[in-house]
Amino acid sequence: RNLDYPLWKQAEDVWAQYQPSTELLRHELQTAGFDRIHVEYLDYPCRIPLQTWQTMIQQRFWSTFSYFTNSQLRDACQELPRLHANRLDADDNLHFNDRLVVLTAHHD
Fold this sequence. Notes:
Largest sheet: 2 strands, antiparallel
Number of helices: 4
Low-confidence stretches: none
Mean pLDDT: 95
Order of helices and strands: HHEHHE
Radius of gyration: 17 Å
Number of strands: 2
Distance between the termini: 30 Å
Strand content: 25-35%
């Protein structure tokens, strides 16, 4: 599924590089003896003040951001309002979906 987080291209690339695919997770569950594996995708609507999001990124709240220098994070955060202008409301809140992958499996 498509990433919906308000990031910049390089951060999206890093994030994607370290996310296991649904197919890999399904395979690992099957290898471990699970069957009747069901995958569901859920969109969880999020709203967060832009300044809070920028602070979280600069504090490296996800491991994704550990691959960037302080200055790279600062510069990227300054670009976020331009990159995601269509996601900002009048109160400077960012709107996006946290897209969750839910796997359920059974082991008989």
